[in-house]
Amino acid sequence: MKQRDFISLVHKFLEYGMAPGMIVHTLEKDRSTRKLGLYLQNKIDETGDFSESLLKTAEQCSKKTDLIKRYGPLLKASEETGNLDGALACILRYLDQKEEAGKSLLGSLVYPVFMISLVMVLSAFLSFGCNTLLANTGIDVQKIQNGVLISSAAVMAAILVFMLAGFWAWGKDKFQADFFNLLRNFSEGKMPLEKSLQLIAGIVTNGRIKILEILNSIKEGESFSKSCIKTGAFDTFCDYWLLYGEETGMSQETFNVLSMYFEKRRLERRRNFLRMAEPCANGITGIYIFLLMVKVALPVLTGLMPKI
Fold this sequence. Notes:
By secondary structure, this protein is mainly α. It is 83% helix and 0% strand. The protein is built from 15 helices and no strands. It has helices at 3-15, 20-29, 34-47, 50-62, 66-80, 84-128, 130-133, 141-171, 174-188, 193-203, 208-219, 224-231, 236-248, 251-275, 277-304. It is flat and about 80 Å long. The model has no long low-confidence stretch (mean pLDDT 75).
């Protein structure tokens, strides 16, 4: 069973008010989930913690350990406040976003990767296979090979630029989106702000220093919004929203708005980049073919012309 399907199933059970013990019993009875149910029961016996055991069982589905680190504290806090189904809904949102990003990336890069692979195979053939084919023609093979190397270098430079643009699109707004998404989730789990910031600083890899600066400023007596303004962690748009949320007592709603705003902006950047993947692959291939015509086809024709 997929990780998302397992969490969705447990989420449905909790929505209908099913107790943890009954959930484990139901999973054990069904043939498709029996192994997961037994694993979940073993973890509960070991740790005595349903939420932690649930995440470890979910990780067993994909063999990845990102959920415990990212959502372990949230599930524990949500279980204590009786909002475990809400925390699972947060995890489902995260998994859906991750799956959507993975599918869009895979679908958009199939054609470019095919074209670039074809270019590399053709380069290898022209570099190493033309010696035999053109041995007795009087054509300067070394000149052709140098031309292929120059063409391949130009293509590799274009691919490198394209990849750097992709890294920029993937990384832009990542800190803000992750920060406010986690802050919203911890806030829904009724976790105190300082504790939430400490946990987020341990989860988020980029921007950790900024979070610690905000946390230190709060400990010195500043409000959360003023701490963000003081440290310059976010842009003016965020600062005004955070200030508005604190003044009106709607911080939770503010976190929701900022989380959705930055996630939408990040996804839009990714979509725009992926839309450019196929045209860029066609352009790189076109440049390569043009260079081959100049660096390979012309020397070959020049060498063969006296024999025609």
